[in-house]
Design goal:
- This protein is of the alpha+beta class.
- Among the domains are: 293 residues, Beta-galactosidase, Chain A, domain 5 (Distorted Sandwich); 138 residues, Golgi alpha-mannosidase II (Immunoglobulin-like, Sandwich).
- The chain has 16 helices and 37 strands.
- Strands 1, 8, 9, 10, 11, 14, 15, 16, 17, 21 and 22 form an 11-stranded antiparallel sheet that branches. A 7-stranded parallel sheet has the order 28-27-26-25-24-23-29. A 6-stranded antiparallel sheet has the order 30-31-32-37-34-35.
């Protein structure tokens, strides 16, 4: 990343008339104000240090306020940066630039451009803290740097807030109560979203709201999250109470830990907070943005050769625990090979029901078929009561290298690690310790029962995916989730899957092998294979189910790309419907789903493929299967979507 510094203009820029009303109280009390502009000038950041020494910022888009006066600061165990602050210097920067490659994201080649501002602050006792802002065309990122650190400094409170203007709306997922749920495994980011609620609506359990958090302010949409989280900090969330539309950063519950060090950030050397990220624009900006990975920590060196995105067969999603047997897993390896999918996941209790020696035999068999094995692990030590095994194999560095060396010798390609249950600093360190050791043994990683990855897929390219979503397994458990699948899925491209790979385990084309009746159509399910992003896409279809699917659809699934070069948002609305186009090489795939119970007639603007001939896969008239027809793209293509239906096009 490079930055070219320029001198600040004299007292910066005069505020326009649109700022005056909301800044009136600042005008009387402020001791400093400045404006940082995005490269295209559409976004503006203003900060103010008032006469109490409290720091505030405001964000505008096209001269309209999208975040009103919002507080900055923190309280550390040895230094208070909440008030009585003094600004010792402010520096504007232009030309922040970063180009990078990702194989498990919405875009392979990524180009980040921004302008920056660094505020150097000092508290009454002379302790120092920096706040670093970067403003890109698609949003704002800022973070704290705590320079003066004692022997064991703890961040007791972060004052960061986001003040949504009156009349704004929110689409938010509650945080589950710590140590609640099945076998005390919450929180794991697996709740339903509350949609289109007034800002300021309290979260009912008092636990808060997960990231990414979606808001609509006037004609602008905002997506709030964090990135570049590492083991020097805990994961955060938005607080449950947001009076007046003021949402504050909140720390995890004290139960969300795996060691006795506590959940709060603490360090004995200077450290950064994660980036606070606010993507701003239209819905197309949010869906196409890479801001959440743009500011994530870069990978160390080139992407390793063993990092290969792909698709996976998986028996457990349909047949559950009793079928983790040698013969059944061999059948799913054959299924993956038949579909030209690169991986097969063997889930819980494989060590007991199959055993290491027979797994090694299956790995050799799979390798001959061009399929790599992924094995499930229970992350848990004594912090939850889950009985599934292997358990306790990954707790320490010595445990991990012993197990990972054995897997490498067996020819296993990756691991799925489940049931973390927390966002405390010690849990974050555990995630990253697993990732560090897995890289040394060339193992791909999938986290389940897990936190939002927050840009880790850039930092650790072998992190292929993570759950952190109420995925398709919940649909197989109960009818209530099946009934809500369509609207829930129509939320995810705008929220959970905006920046980070997501292991929703999508695409059940025929039927769920249980008492549950799937309410989405087959074409809806097919569309999710492209709509949802995951470095390894674990499909929720069985060999017997696929046998009922038309050969043309099967051929499509054999040739779907494993990674994407580009993305275009076509149209949609959170929770109602979404249409997205993804590019791989010279081909474009257009996927759409209807999250509502009424049919939709769309006229899609597809000028980027105008004149090209392609295939449309849509719901048959009677709703029992998937039709296939040849179409020619025009500037406006008419498409019908049934209630809870969908489609997929390939050009």
């Amino acid at each position: 990343m490079t930055m070219a510094q320029r001198k600040p203009k004299s007292k910066w820029v005069k505020l326009g008339i649109l700022f005056v009303s909301s800044l009136l109280h600042w005008a009387c009390t402020s001791s400093s104000n400045a404006v940082l502009k995005s490269p295209d000038g559409s976004l503006s950041l203003t900060y103010q240090l008032d006469d109490k020494g409290q720091l505030w910022y405001q964000l505008s888009r096209n001269d309209t306020i999208v975040l009103d006066s919002s507080q900055l600061g923190a309280v550390l165990s040895e230094a208070d940066f909440s008030e009585k602050l003094k600004l010792t210097s402010d520096s504007l920067y232009e030309g922040i630039s970063d180009d990078y490659v990702m194989l498990n994201a919405k875009r392979k080649q990524n180009h980040y451009r921004a302008n920056g501002l660094v505020l150097k602050l000092q508290n009454e006792a002379g302790r120092r803290c920096d706040i670093i802002f970067q403003l890109a065309n698609d949003g704002l990122a800022f973070r704290y740097f705590f320079a003066d650190i004692g022997r064991s400094t703890k961040v007791e409170k972060e004052l960061t807030s986001y003040h949504l203007p009156a009349g704004s709306k929110a689409w938010l997922q509650p945080v589950a109560i710590a140590k609640s749920g099945w076998e005390q495994t919450n929180p794991s980011y697996e709740e339903h979203y509350e949609q289109d609620i007034p800002v300021g609506t309290p979260e009912k359990t008092g636990t808060g709201w997960v990231y990414p958090s979606l808001f609509k302010s006037g004609n602008s949409w905002l997506l709030i999250t964090e990135a570049a989280l590492d083991s020097s900090y805990c994961a955060t969330r938005l607080a449950a109470q947001s009076p007046g539309g003021i949402y504050r950063v909140a720390f995890p519950d004290s139960k969300e830990e795996i060691t006795k060090d506590g959940v709060l950030p603490h360090s004995d050397k200077p450290f950064y907070s994660p980036w606070r990220v606010v993507t701003v624009g239209g819905l197309s900006t949010l869906v196409e943005s890479t801001l959440g990975t743009d500011v994530a920590s870069p990978a160390k060196g080139e992407i390793p050769a063993f990092v290969k995105p792909g698709k996976a067969a998986w028996s457990w999603i349909n047949s559950k625990d009793d079928f983790i047997t040698y013969d059944e897993q061999k059948r799913y390896i054959d299924f993956a090979a038949q579909m030209k999918w690169q991986y097969c996941l063997i889930d819980v209790n494989w060590d007991d029901k199959i055993g290491y020696d027979k797994i090694a035999e299956l790995a050799r068999y799979a390798d001959q078929k061009g399929v790599g094995l992924i094995l499930w692990y229970n992350s848990a030590g004594d912090w939850n009561t889950v009985k599934y095994t292997p358990k306790g194999k990954l707790l320490t560095h010595s445990d991990r290298i012993r197990e990972f060396d054995r897997l490498k010798q067996m020819g296993v390609k990756g691991i799925k690690v489940d049931f973390f249950g927390g966002d405390g600093q010690s849990v974050i360190k555990y995630y990253q310790d697993i990732l560090d050791d897995a890289a040394d043994y060339q193992l791909l990683v999938n986290f389940h029962g897990a936190t939002l990855p927050r840009g880790w897929a850039r930092t650790y390219p072998h992190l292929m995916t993570a759950e952190a979503v109420r995925g398709f397994e919940m649909v197989t458990f109960g009818q209530e989730d099946a009934d809500k699948e369509a609207t829930h899925a129509a939320m995810l491209p705008f929220t959970r899957n905006a920046f980070d790979p997501m292991d929703f385990t999508p695409m059940n084309l025929y039927k769920i092998q249980s008492h549950v009746q799937r309410k989405t159509t087959s074409a809806f399910e097919l569309a999710t294979s492209v709509l949802f992003l995951s470095g390894i896409q674990h499909y929720a279809e069985s060999p017997s189910g696929m046998a009922h699917i038309a050969e043309g659809v099967q051929d499509l699934l054999r040739t779907l790309p494993d990674s994407w070069d580009d993305i275009k948002f076509i149209e949609g609305y959170p929770g109602k419907y979404v249409v997205v186009a993804r590019k791989s090489g010279e081909s474009w795939y257009v996927a759409g789903i209807n999250g509502e119970e009424q049919a939709k007639e769309l006229k899609l603007r597809l000028s980027f493929v105008e004149g090209k001939q392609g295939e449309l896969f849509a719901d048959e008239q009677d709703g029992t299967g998937i039709s296939q027809q040849t179409i020619t793209a025009t500037n406006e293509v008419a498409v019908s979507m049934k209630a809870s239906g969908g489609f997929l096009m390939k050009f």
